[in-house]
Amino acid sequence: MRTRLGRWVWPGSGRPRATTEPRGAADRPRPGSDPEQGRLVSTREATGPGRRAGRPGGVRVLEGVPEVGRRGFLQAAAVQGASLPVACVLLGRDASAAAVADAGPAAAAARRKGALRLPPGEAPAATIVRDFADPYLELLRLLREAAEIEHSLLVQYLYGAFSLKPAYEAVAGRGDPNARDLLGVAIQEMQHLRAVNRLLVALGAAPHLDRQDFPYEPDIYPFALNLEPLGRASLAKYVYTEAPGDALHFRAARTEDDLLFLQDLHEELGDGVRPNHVGSLYGTVIEVLAELGRSPAAPPLPDLERWTGELERIKGEGEVDHFRLFRDLFTGRHEGFGAVPRVWRLDADDPAYPAYRLPVNPTAYVGHPRQIEDPAALTLAWLGNLHYWAALAMLDYGYRDGRDAGAAAAQACMLGPLWSLGRHLPRLGAGMPFDPLGVGYAPGRTGRDSLRFVVRLLREADRLARSVEADLPPDYPLEADAELVAELEGEIAATTYASSTN
Fold first, then answer.
1. Strand pairing partners for 128?
2. What is the distance between the terminal CA atoms of the chain, rounded to a whole angstrom?
3. pLDDT tens across 388-407, in order?
4. Which of 21, 283, 389, 474 has the most CB atoms around it within 10 Å of its CB?
5. Are 39 and 81 in contact, with CB atoms under 8 Å apart?
6. Which residues, 6+ apart, have CB-to-CB distance to 132 below 8 Å?
7. Residue 48: helix, strand or coil by DSSP?
8. H helices within 17-168, ranges in order?
9. 113 with 72: CB under 8 angstroms?
10. At what angle do helices 323-331 and 182-202 cross, to 10 degrees?
11. What's the Rg (C-alpha) of the chain?
């Protein structure tokens, strides 16, 4: 197994020893280094059973570095042999000596002993590694990564919401954007995805709706993201993902309930350094956006003040509203659980347990090891995929050309057929796979060509749905695809005429 893990690694920890050196050199002591000391490396990547190689160019973090200021950070990186893509690392704000002291007695004691690994919840902040010196290039890279993460969170929250039994509909929600239920948060993630893509387009870049297949291991997180039924393990990840940077430190606890929550959370997540949160990524995006605004070589830019406010809103929505929801769900205190005590401690086979037993990371691609086995469920899952792909292609068209027709058609597709199938599949023991489309979501040479691709997708979906009409859920809108095809053909005709008259 070859590893390049962006974390401090300690001998005897039972984990692979991380290194940026060639294979076979991991156990050779570095000249002048103490083999019993942890070493800092710049990226997190691993190959081996159950884990795929990290994706080059993704957001990476430097971990285990106390916030002791810019010079101290660079000295620590140099001493530990960190390999940086360029000679600049986005440090955020420099921390003062007071901030170091504020880390608490546990952190201070650890540092006095020369240790950089702190108790769970007390780990120092991670630093996102910078790839490009040019702030414009770096901003586009970060925004594309943010779009992938928002997309991944969106479908995870949908999968979790769809996995809930009818008795817990108040937890699942009905699909209006809010931070009180899962579907509401999923819709807000869709809005975040829209905002990130519109900023990309405003900066002169293409929208980005692709995402990695599951399990997805973005280097900003210490765990893989999966499509999985709702439970304590998945909710612990969502709490961590949405949390503000300091909310999960034990020193932030104000009550006994806070301490019990943190203990339970870190027990569920497991021991180890916690690299980052999605809010940290947006904080970095905001800093690089401001840097771009100060650059004399910047290209024509949109209203940066407006976009900074929008990014701050997204960051705050996650760190306050979404964090609060997932904390309530994790602790079982959400009002949608009613009077069921310790709901997540129930056996998964207990009728009162909130979620169905569903597969993790299912797929409707035939021949895949995780292929959905039941033939009827497999057909409905493929039908769901067709609508998921059509919706994403229509979103790309709308973002790219600024046309409302694309967004409206995508919404009709998502809240109609896809919604119906997503809520029905768990009753068959399956889940909506949200499989990625190999050709991407802008397959045409022009926007009109991509719309023609969507029309073909929807026609195929319509034929498939009518062939299995007896197996469709009662609320499936059978005429929706034909209606969408008619609307899109009208849009194609309108854009063709506009193009011919220019």
1. 61
2. 59
3. 999 999 999 999 877 777 78
4. 389
5. yes
6. 86, 138, 141
7. strand
8. 70-79, 97-101, 105-112, 135-162
9. no
10. 150
11. 24
Q: Which residue has the tokens 């905002």?
A: 195
Q: Which of 397, 412, 408 is nearest to 454 (CA)?
A: 397
The proportion of the chain whose per-residue pLDDT surpasses 70, expressed as a percent, equals: 72
What is the value of pTM for the model shown? 0.78
Total H helices, total E strands in the chain: 16, 4
pLDDT, tens only, 429-487:
999 999 999 999 999 999 999 999 999 999 999 999 999 999 999 999 999 999 999 99
State what percent of residues in the chain have pLDDT above 90.
57
| Distance (Å, whole) CA 232 – CA 355 | 11
Residue 154 backbone phi and psi in degrees, to 5: -55, -50
Query: pLDDT at position 52, please?
Result: 43
Region of poorest pLDDT, from 118-122, 176-180, 471-475: 118-122
- Please give the residue that has the higher pLDDT: either 222 or 473: 473
Token digits for 461?
């979906």
| Measured distance CA(40)–CA(78) in Å, rounded | 9
Helix, coil or strand: residue 126 = coil
Strand intervals (E) in 269-420 = none
